Amino acid sequence: MKPHPFLIPALLTSCLPAAALAQERPNILYIMCDDMGWGDLSCYGQQHFHTPNIDRLAAQGMLMTAAYAGSPVSAPSRACMMTGQHSGHTHVRGNKEYWPGSGNVWYGANTDYAVVGQEPYDPSVPIVPELLKRAGYRTAMFGKWAGGYEGSVSTPDRRGIDEFYGFICQFQAHLYFPNFLNRYSPSLGDTAVVREVLWQNAEHAMYGQDYAARRQYSADLIHERALTWLRAQRPGEPFLGLFTYTLPHAELRQPEDSLLAAFRGRLLPERTYVGSEGSRYNPTPEAHAQFAAMITRLDAYVGQIMQVLDEQGLTSNTVVIFTSDNGPHEEGGADPDYFNHDGKFRGLKRSTHEGGIRVPFIVRWPGHVAAGTESDLPFAFYDLLPTFCELAGTEAPEAIDGLSIAPTLLGQPTRQRRHDHLYWEFHETDMLGVRQADWKLVVSHGRPSLYNLAADPHEDNDLAALRPDIVRQLVAIIYEEHTDSPLFPVTLPAR
After folding, report:
1. Residues sharing a CB contact under 8 Å with residue 38, sequence separation 6 or more, in sequence order
2. Roughly what angle, to the nearest 10 degrees, separates helices 52-59 and 287-311?
3. How does pLDDT run across 368-402, given as a tens digit for each residue?
4. N or C: which end of the chain has fewer CB within 10 A?
């Protein structure tokens, strides 16, 4: 077990006071992968493969053991991070998608539809890149946006992003060899988000045997653009980089290279995914090898990022954060039981049980965040906006639910404000969740279940009948935190 930062006063002397921190104006590099479980990194206990670069990031910084996503799925979890509001308040609370209705030549040779994108963020609510851009930061995003459909009121070019490359629509990101990626780059003459066609992919079918002829792998293309942007940054000119990678989300497919070859025949019994009629994913005969290689590829990305920071002289003044947007999935042949994705927790993506919302979270800032430390501070993605604002020395909006965790990162526990409770709701599975201290209430279709996380982190023993007093207490919190949304309705428990 690594030493807990609150128990080592000697390590705290390297941390700067808040006033000095504001003057430092550190770079912030936020790396968020897609659907990685709490147990998918070797520094969190994964045994089937290793993640040496991410492990090194943890060894050089702080590993958080009670970090929570904003929601158990992608778009609303990202919305909580962007707005500082929890999913009972923020506008985007689900993966609501907009369909144009008929054919789209860029999406698929054998489909008659396309998804344009997700429900837009409320333009009246400021988001992280807007706030930091106003504070003088350069801003960029590479990966998934999921904060509004193409041409909507909320696209990267309209929400404080100086440079973007990736997927406006997260549905498009389900396949790794797409027909196009979205781009916003004023240096290339873009005045708005455009589609950059991947012609080596688009000339082949989206599904079926011809799909294997596609060659332009979106994850690598996005990462290459991210590194190019990072190499252009200079000391003394603060930046916010949002690297929202799609790995290891389905589909389970990647280029034929040494990363994949290293796992073939090793993770037995192998799992075959044959797909089905109407499935959004292509078949794979080697789901285990593909998944392990995808995490390995992501780990290699992190190593390359760290190398570029070193080469550019940016390491000492860059806060690097690594996390996942929610818990693990079981789509496209993914096998959460085999890999024990959720670690010691119950539940997967789309669930407000711990496995659906507890995520890995690592922070490195040499000389400020003590190396080799852990924190068990419970916090959620809506705490990131005020954290980023504090690190950048700017004010956070008042109408947020988050509390800055910068004091914990900097080894200043007496300054750390703590939540009385954390809150989640998710309409697609009609689930809610409240954590207060060690008590956890999970509400499914209006029915509450109660767990004590200290004694039962896997949430196996429902104590609702034994502790109705605690149930009433946590149900009252739900009624305090929930605001009705006609787009994302949920069933509240009886008072």
Report:
1. 44, 327, 341, 342, 343, 344, 345, 355, 358, 359, 360
2. 50
3. 999 999 999 999 999 999 999 999 999 999 999 99
4. N
- 427 contacts: CB under 8 Å, gap ≥ 6: 93, 94, 485, 488, 489, 490
446: how many CB neighbours lie within 10 A of its CB? 12
Select from 328, 343, 381, 330 the least CA-distant residue to 71. 381
Q: Does an H or E element contain 337, and which?
A: helix 336-339
Coil, strand or helix at 408 = helix
Q: Could you give the C-alpha distances from 229 to 132, 186, 371, 478, in angstroms and in order? A: 18, 13, 27, 43
User: 288, 271 in Cβ contact below 8 A?
Assistant: yes
Residues 299, 40 contacting (CB under 8 angstroms): no
Mean pLDDT, all residues of the chain: 91
Residue holding tokens 């780990």?
299
Return d(Cα 152, Cα 272) in angstroms, integer. Answer: 40
How far apart CA 253 and CA 361 sit, in angstroms, is 25
Please classify residue 335 by burial: count the beta carbons closer than 10 Å to its beta carbon, then call 0-12 exposed, 13-18 middle and 19+ buried.
Answer: middle
Distance CA(389)–CA(395), nearest Å, equals 6
Cβ proximity of 254 and 263 under 8 Å: no
Concatenating the DSSP letter of every residue in 223-234 gives HHHHHHHHHT--
Question: Are the beta carbons of 226 and 185 closer than 8 angstroms?
Answer: no
How far is it, in rounded angstroms, from Cα 264 to Cα 5?
Answer: 40
Using pLDDT thresholds of 50, 70 and 90, give the confidence band for residue 258: confident
CB 440 within 8 A of CB 450: yes
How close are the terminal C-alpha atoms of the chain, in Å?
42
Q: Which of 19, 85, 93 is nearest to 397 (CA)?
A: 85
pLDDT in tens, 66-77: 999 999 999 999
Cβ contact 75:147 at 8 Å: yes
Q: How far apart are CA 374 and CA 4, in angstroms?
A: 5
Q: Is 86 left (phi over 0), alpha (psi -120 to 50) or beta?
A: beta
Taking the complete model, does pTM exceed 0.85, yes or no? yes
